[in-house]
Amino acid sequence: MQITPTVTPSVSINSNPPFPVCLGASVTFHTTPVNGGINPTMQWFVNNNYVVSGDNFTPTNIINNDQVYCVLTSTLACVSSSTAQSNTLLVIFNPLPVLSATQQAESCHGAGDASINLNITQGTPPYTFHWDYPSDNGTVTTATAANLHSGTYNVTVSDSKLCSADTSIFISPEGSGCLFIPTVFSPNSDGNNDVLLVRGSNIKSLSLRIYDRWGNKVFEANNQNNGWDGTYNGTPLNAAVFVYYLKAELQNGSITEQQGNITLLK
């Protein structure tokens, strides 16, 4: 006669990943049964409320401080108790960083002087920053990115618990193009500042007229690359102050007009 000893069933549970985890992470609870027999029943409870049966449990709506445990029902015949309750796991979620951004647009279209400043709340400092845009090359590691053009900029912020959040910030191409015309030039053939040119970006078309003090037009250009060399009809002019009128259409369709004085030095 063979006597089957009485055994005591038990079950332990663990979570993958183990707590604490970042808020929003998917967590699966696993069982390790002892003396459960073949195909024991596993019933999962959250805060003493039955939820589901199965060897594993992947909840979708647990929150911070929930308590999770499992009850095993053994299929063995000789057991001291047919059921066993597992250890209880406390749900602990680390908060994610919450990101908000303020931005400064370019002073004029194409200037490349826009900036973004991130404000981070929640999460656990210190934070690390990873900006993703072509001109960054991994060099921006702070909450502020500067010297930007219009476009979309992506950033991921991670905290000391390795919880991360990301966001995209769009700097719209607002503002007009940048126009600049020097007020002084010296066409003396020394290779420095010999030609007066309209400087700027995103210029679709322009008209530049320059007059002497008596109102005579001494130069006219309709192309940004066509500069004044300080001559009139091929003759170098003497040092003097001239008046210019500039009208330009920018790539965004806006019209800008400027006028002022230009000093020709010798």
Describe the structure.
This protein is an all-beta fold and 266 residues long. The chain folds into three domains: 10-93, Immunoglobulin-like (Sandwich); 98-171, Sandwich (Immunoglobulin-like); 179-264, Immunoglobulin-like (Sandwich). Helices cover 0% and strands 48% of the residues. It contains no helices and 25 strands. The protein has strands spanning 10-16, 21-22, 28-34, 41-46, 49-53, 56-57, 67-73, 83-85, 89-90, 93-94, 98-104, 114-121, 128-132, 144-148, 151-158, 164-171, 179-180, 184-185, 199-200, 203-211, 217-221, 231-232, 235-236, 240-250, 255-264. The strands form eight sheets. Strands 4, 5, 7, 8 and 9 form a five-stranded antiparallel beta sheet that branches. It has a five-stranded mixed beta sheet with strand order 18-25-24-20-21, with no helix packed on it. A three-stranded antiparallel beta sheet has the order 1-3-6, with no helix packed on it. 20% of the residues are buried.
